[in-house]
C-alpha cells in the first residue's frame, strides 16, 4: 500500500498544524491548497470532499479522513517510524489518545463558547464541564513538561503547540510561563519552521494579508 496522500489545506487556518505534522513525519504527500478568502472551501468541488467545508482533510488510498484530531491520529499511525504515535500496547498510548481527544471534545468547544461569550452551561449538561476545570486540566499537564507525555514528543504536541500559538496570540487564554515555554519548544523545531515558511509562501501567492 502506498503511503502517499493528498492534504487539503488552507494557509492561516487550523490546517497549518497539519502541515507542521507532515513535515515532522517527512511524509510523501500532495498539497491541495484552498483559498478561503475566495470561498473555495464552500464550492461544490470541495464540499464533495468535506461537506462541512473545513480543513484539514486527507485522502489516502481511497480513504477520506476529516476532523482535525482524526487526521493527526491517522497520519501519525501511517508513519510509525517517525515515532510520533505510541503504538498499541505502549503504556503511553492511552495518555496520547487522551490528550488528542481532550483537545477536540473539551478544549476547543469550551474555547469557542468562551470566545463567543456564551452563557455558561450547567456542568451536568455540558460535554466539557466548566471552563476553569477544563483549562486547569491541560495547564497542569503542561507544567509537568517538557511535553504532554513527559520527555516523549508526539503528534499531540504538534496539535496543542500549534493551536496554543494562535490561541494565546489572540488573547483567548493567558500565556502563562508554562504555556509560553511549551510554545517556544514547538516553534523551535525544524518542522515548525519549515511548515510556517511554506504557509507564508502560500499566503503571498494568494495575496492574503500577512
Task: Describe what this molecule looks like in 3D.
The protein folds into two domains: 5-84, Glutaredoxin; 93-191, Up-down Bundle (Glutathione S-transferase Yfyf (Class Pi), Chain A, domain 2), CATH 1.20.1050. Helices cover 50% and strands 8% of the residues. It is built from eight helices and four strands. It has a four-stranded mixed β-sheet with strand order 2-1-3-4. Helix 1 runs antiparallel to helix 6 (155-169), helix 1 crosses helix 8 (190-205) and helix 6 (155-169) crosses helix 7 (177-187). The longest helix has 23 residues, at 93-115. The mean pLDDT is 95.
Q: Give the class-level CATH name of the largest domain.
A: Mainly Alpha
Mean pLDDT: 95
The strand order across the widest sheet is: 2-1-3-4
- Binned, the helix content reads 40-55%
**Overall tally of structural domains:** 2
The structure class reads alpha+beta
Choose one word for the global shape. globular
Q: Report the major sheet.
A: 4 strands, mixed
List the secondary-structure elements in sequence, H or E: EHEHEEHHHHHH
Portion in strands: 5-15%
Low-confidence stretches: none
CATH-scheme architecture of the largest domain: Up-down Bundle
- CA(first)-CA(last) distance: 39 Å
Comma- or semicolon-separated keywords:
210 residues; alpha+beta; Glutaredoxin; Glutathione S-transferase Yfyf (Class Pi), Chain A, domain 2; 2 domains; four-stranded mixed beta sheet; 8 helices; 50% helix; 8% strand; globular; Glutathione-S-Trfase_C_sf; Glutathione_S-Trfase; transferase activity; Thioredoxin-like_sf
Amino acid at each position: 500500500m502506498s503511503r502517499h496522500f493528498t492534504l487539503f489545506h488552507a494557509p492561516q487556518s487550523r490546517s497549518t498544524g497539519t502541515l507542521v505534522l507532515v513535515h515532522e513525519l517527512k511524509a510523501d504527500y500532495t498539497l491541495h491548497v484552498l483559498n478561503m478568502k475566495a470561498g473555495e472551501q464552500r464550492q461544490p468541488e470541495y464540499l464533495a470532499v468535506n461537506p462541512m467545508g473545513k480543513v484539514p482533510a486527507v485522502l489516502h488510498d481511497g480513504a477520506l479522513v476529516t476532523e482535525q484530531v482524526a487526521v493527526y491520529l491517522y497520519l501519525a499511525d501511517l508513519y510509525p517510524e517517525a515515532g510520533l504515535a505510541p503504538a498499541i500496547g505502549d503504556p503511553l498510548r492511552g495518555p496520547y489518545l487522551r490528550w488528542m481527544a481532550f483537545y477536540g471534545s473539551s478544549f476547543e468547544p469550551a474555547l469557542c463558547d468562551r470566545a463567543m461569550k456564551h452563557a455558561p452551561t450547567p456542568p451536568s449538561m455540558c460535554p466539557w464541564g466548566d471552563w476553569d476545570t477544563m483549562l486547569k486540566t491541560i495547564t497542569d499537564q503542561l507544567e509537568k513538561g517538557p511535553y504532554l507525555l513527559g520527555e516523549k514528543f508526539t503528534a499531540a504536541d504538534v496539535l496543542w503547540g500549534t493551536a496554543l500559538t494562535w490561541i494565546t496570540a489572540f488573547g483567548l487564554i493567558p500565556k502563562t510561563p508554562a504555556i509560553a515555554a511549551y510554545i517556544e519548544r514547538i516553534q523551535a523545531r525544524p518542522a515548525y519552521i519549515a511548515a510556517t515558511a511554506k504557509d507564508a509562501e502560500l499566503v503571498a501567492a494568494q495575496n492574503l494579508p500577512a
